[in-house]
Amino acid sequence: MGNLDTLNDMGQAIVGALENETNDYEVTFGQLTVTARADKIVTILTFLRDEGNFKFVQLTDICGVDYPERTLRFDVVYHLLSLKHNIRVRIKVQADDEVPVPSVVGVYPCANWYEREVWDMYGVMFDGHPDLRRLLTDYGFQGHPQRKDFPLSGYVELRYSEEERRGVYEPVQLQQEFRNFDFMSPWEGAGYILHPEEKTGDEAEHKGQES
Q1: Nearest to 95 by CA among 71, 120, 78
Q2: Strands of 67-155, DSSP E
Q3: pLDDT digits (tens, 9 = 90+) for 2-54
Q4: What is the mean pLDDT of residues 76-90?
Q5: Which domains does the chain have, with CATH numbers?
Q6: In angstroms, rounded to a whole number, what is the distance separating the alpha carbons of residues 171 and 158?
Q7: Helix, strand or coil, per DSSP, at residue 79
């Protein structure tokens, strides 16, 4: 199959070997990304793990991305590492919250918790997962926090009450107000305030003038 030491070579080789399962590849910011069919993800990852020219033996992460304006609003992204070539690749598929994506736990056992996290945060279901339940939020949590349309307040959260000696559900409360950060001066402990017209000058000189 030739030399696969560059990202472009690897991308061409993967798409060429899986032409019915993948769509295209791109190399941006020094990273290789292959877009693929969600229903073929088990076939794709099994091939990339076992094929001697690739040997992507490690699944390092599975994450989600939300694009609410799309019909298939979610990207599910699989991050693989080939120790043979010292190359990483991202396999990206599109999904929604109705049609499950096949689970890859049978290919990479470590995908168990990764898929649970994607389900918990985004609501993407994984068909064939042995124990698909919430991982980072509690069992009574409503919604999926990393969706872009998830409200910052309005849901309930669980906390332990020392008074009642049990877990209690209460409306979510933000522990601090929203902040507009002023990156031209320290955001806490500043002994002076810079006005907009003064930010182009020397901050240290301005502080010396006030003292």
Answers
A1: 71
A2: 74-82, 87-95, 101-102, 126-127
A3: 456 689 999 999 999 999 999 999 999 999 999 999 999 999 999 999 999 99
A4: 95
A5: 7-150 (3.30.460.80)
A6: 9
A7: strand
Two structure tokens written together for 152: 């910052």
Structure tokens at 196: 């907009």
Structure confidence at residue 176 (pLDDT): 59
Residues 22, 37 contacting (CB under 8 angstroms): yes
Average pLDDT, the chain: 85
Nearest to 74 by CA among 10, 19, 153, 147: 147
Q: CB under 8 Å to 176, separation ≥6 — which residues?
A: none
Q: How far is CA 48 from CA 60, 107, 111, in A?
A: 14, 10, 15
Can you give the pTM of this predicted structure? 0.75
Type of residue found at 199: K
- The H helix count followed by the E strand count for the chain is 4, 9
Q: Per residue in 146-164, pLDDT tens?
A: 999 887 766 777 788 999 9
Q: Look up residue 126 and give its two tokens.
A: 């994984």
